[in-house]
């Protein structure tokens, strides 16, 4: 698969852009374990234009994580055009337009998935950004606003006509948020449309090697993108990559290796930010990681782990888990 001049190889597996999740430390871990492409946290166009310090910091990328995409969201043409120009100065490999975020603080203001209620504006923004930058522009969106408004088949053609180089489709409507089960049927129909010539990337409920294989084999997508299933599990890219490439399963990581990765992630964030905020930034991963399943009477340990405020305290709790499973 190819986006612009970027060649991704056989059946790419990508890390989805997620707020407060896909910081540079986590992206580099996912890249190490086989992510074909990673994305920054999604970034407000308005905040970029106003040069908000915390937002500008999200533009930091490292050459070792390439290819890397920076995703922006906004609700008007001018701010999205100017934000794209600012983003281009950070030298990402791809600029992605977020027309899929369903959360109220974004969608209810007309940005993210809110654009699904104003397709003419979505298309105008897309065409304007494509014409404003030299970096390949891609789009991420959903099937439609609701089950009664499944517009993705027609929308995909119109977005392609705006000049985007790839389209990522999350298999839910905005109304569904993250509930229920992602519907890949319409993603497959978009891919099968003979008018569609750009790569189609499928997203939604990929949590295992089996689901990844089904996405490629049953729906024919050019690539898949993984979101929530990566929390506390950056090695999911290795597991899926091994299955796609038919690598011997004996190479699977064991509990100790996975715990080492979790501890490394904590250290990366502490060193990158500071001890207190670094630990806070890692809690979502600690809460979601599947590696502690099977530890008896783990509830109190989990509470202590999520309340820890120093790295020494947190690492001590994790090492106690290692002893209990050792």
Task: Give a description of the structure.
By secondary structure, the chain is an alpha/beta fold. It contains 14 helices and eleven strands. The protein has helices spanning 24-32, 45-49, 53-57, 77-88, 104-107, 119-132, 152-161, 185-192, 209-219, 236-245, 255-272, 275-288, 299-307, 311-325, and strands at 2-3, 6-7, 13-15, 38-39, 43-44, 68-73, 94-99, 137-142, 167-170, 200-203, 223-226. The strands form two sheets. Strands 3, 4, 5, 6, 7, 8, 9, 10 and 11 form a nine-stranded parallel β-sheet that branches. A two-stranded antiparallel ribbon has the order 1-2. Strand 9 (167-170), helix 8 and strand 10 form a beta-alpha-beta unit. Helix 4 packs parallel to helix 6 (119-132) and helix 13 runs antiparallel to helix 14 (311-325). The longest helix is centred in the last third of the chain and has 18 residues, at 255-272. It is globular.
Concise synopsis of the structure shown:
The protein has helices spanning 24-32, 45-49, 53-57, 77-88, 104-107, 119-132, 152-161, 185-192, 209-219, 236-245, 255-272, 275-288, 299-307, 311-325, and strands spanning 2-3, 6-7, 13-15, 38-39, 43-44, 68-73, 94-99, 137-142, 167-170, 200-203, 223-226. With 326 residues, it is of the alpha/beta class. Strand 10, helix 9 (209-219) and strand 11 (223-226) form a beta-alpha-beta unit.
